[in-house]
Amino acid sequence: MARSIKKGPFVEPRLLKKIQGKKPDDTGLVKTWSRRSQISPEMIGFIFGVHNGREFIEVRVTEDMVGHRLGEFSLTRKFIRHGGKMQKELEQKKKESEITAAKAAKASTEAKK
Fold first, then answer.
1. Which residues contact 11 (CB under 8 A, 6 or more apart)?
2. What's the pTM value of the predicted model, to 2 decimals?
3. DSSP bridge pairs for 50
4. How does pLDDT run across 12-40, given as a tens digit for each residue?
5. What is the pLDDT of residue 80?
6. How far apart are alpha carbons 65 and 63 in whole angstroms?
7. What's the start-to-end Cα distance of the chain, in Å?
């Protein structure tokens, strides 16, 4: 359910206090556990370390993110690939193509010398 328009968006006051009066370039990583805080226009350009339960994920705020929550950009679950025989075959083909591309690049650099 959406928050009431009368109340306005929820932005963690401590988070605004940390970035108030600072420039995004000068400020390093701003760590926060407040995943529920909405991204406001004042936050554009800053890098936030959003806690996902285990570690801090770096989130660089852009204009497109305004109105979303910080937690949307710091996933709490790690995707482990679906697998099986077909997946292993695809990965093997990909690895072989990378090796051939690397060999071709190496050969072209040696030919230039």
1. 37, 38, 40
2. 0.67
3. 32, 57
4. 999 999 999 999 888 899 999 999 999 99
5. 76
6. 5
7. 65
Tell which CATH architecture fits domain 13-73. Answer: 2-Layer Sandwich (3.30)
**Band of the pLDDT at 1, cuts 50, 70, 90?**
low
Q: Determine the residue type at 90.
A: L
CA distances from 16 to 1, 21, 37, 39, 70 (A): 25, 10, 10, 10, 13
Q: What is the 3-state secondary structure (H, E, C) of the chain?
A: CCCCCCCCCCCCHHHHHHHCCCCCCCCCEEEECCCCCECCHHHCCCEEEEECCCCEEEEECCHHHCCCEHHHHCCCCCCCCCCCHHHHHHHHHHHHHHHHHHHHHHHHHHHHC
pLDDT tens, 46-102? 999 999 999 999 999 999 999 999 999 999 998 776 777 788 888 889 999 999 998
Q: Report domain extents, the chain.
A: 13-73, 83-113
